[in-house]
């Protein structure tokens, strides 16, 4: 099967790319490492006179310093605040004003955190001085000028994201604005300005309130992850702990930027109506200005083996939820494709095992799935299962039904038809992911960053093609053990005044 389907996959995609075979497809992709260490990928995909880019920075919340959780996420919020020439009325004056903000904040932060001898009146005075310094710096800001320049030149979809493993930046522009894009995007990294930092810090704090503190599922996932990872940095929330966010400074952000936002730790992918011979010199001209720096050392704490069930139970006025996870190796593990196959088998659509069992047949859940990647994939992480009980059903019913399906994986071979569909869907999913310039740019950059070769994007499908029935049973028996299980549950709490057996609640 592999001999027929994989070339077919390539040929389908090559039609869209304008090529005729694998060799001609590769001619559409040019990869170059600049002298400063930056990796650049250019893919010629001339379907419309536009291009998309994706800048991948190999730093996520796992890289947050101790007591500074949320710092990687702050980089995302500072991404499009401008540079020394964009977003300011007078950068020389603004630079001095921003330095004054940091001095005032350092004095205020030191005084307010004194354990002994804190002078509350002095704290108020220092806080006022800090806020006055912020106001003085704000007068030089041209709000959102960077975004306005992008939009005025036809740019669309300007956005960024942060997760545990990485940070990404992306938007699209007309092909005739390529040099402007190269200037804008490189200038952000060459002359970063932590403009309106404390304003954005407030935005992040509000984001945390909305997505975690006041959102039961957000609280469950945060506490579940912290319970599952006692040592590895995956126990840190990407948005940051509240007390850490409240202490972050623009000085902290600058230090993080200079450590991780170096060319050797970045990949830039461009896909669209561009010719590598024409645009690569432009990329070198602008991105080559970025100063060389060593790739940050990859050090994380190794999570010790788990040897007993761990559990988190939240009592909340909300929908009940059941969640459980099992430690598994990172994406580089030789069995990674087997986990992908199990994900598809358990969760892909109405024919998946969990849907048929919990939703269709038992009618105890509105939704159920199993998947890898919680909370990331770069380091050893979790394969998770979850289910949402229907009214009248309890989380324990979901747990029992999920465990029954896990036992089937461990004791019975999957059918030929199931395995065939898993492999067919893997190919279809890849093609869907390559349907537009933006998706292509992101996937090429991520694969290049993770494997050092964008071709691994297709290698993933090839590896799933090799997965056997025996592999699925073997990995299920190795991973889905009670002693390797962490459980997270939301149990619905009765509203105040509800009458229950025995009297009023």
Can you tag this structure with a few keywords?
alpha+beta; 13 strands; disordered C terminus; 6-stranded mixed sheet; Cytochrome Bc1 Complex, Chain A, domain 1; 505 residues; 4 domains; globular; 5-stranded mixed sheet; disordered N terminus; 48% helix
Brief account:
It contains 19 helices and 13 strands.
Number of structural units classed as domains:
4
Structural class: alpha+beta
- Specify the CATH class of the largest domain: Alpha Beta
Which value, in Å, is the CA radius of gyration? 25 Å
**Oligomeric assembly:** single chain
Structural features, described:
The protein is α+β, with helices and mostly antiparallel strands. It folds into four domains: 2-27, no CATH class; 34-79 and 148-287, 2-Layer Sandwich (Cytochrome Bc1 Complex, Chain A, domain 1), CATH 3.30.830; 89-140, no CATH class; 310-493, 2-Layer Sandwich (Cytochrome Bc1 Complex, Chain A, domain 1). 48% of the residues lie in helices and 17% in strands. It is built from 19 helices and 13 strands. It has helices spanning 2-17, 22-27, 71-78, 91-112, 120-138, 145-152, 178-190, 197-213, 216-228, 242-245, 250-260, 276-287, 336-347, 353-361, 395-411, 416-433, 437-451, 456-465, 469-479, and strands spanning 29-33, 39-44, 50-57, 156-162, 167-174, 266-272, 310-316, 321-328, 365-374, 381-389, 485-492, 499-500, 503-504. A six-stranded mixed sheet has the order 1-2-6-3-5-4, with helices on both faces. Strands 7-11-8-10-9 form a five-stranded mixed sheet, sandwiched between helices. β12 (499-500) and β13 form a beta hairpin. The N and C termini lie far apart (62 Å). The model is unreliable at 1-22 and 500-505 (pLDDT under 50).
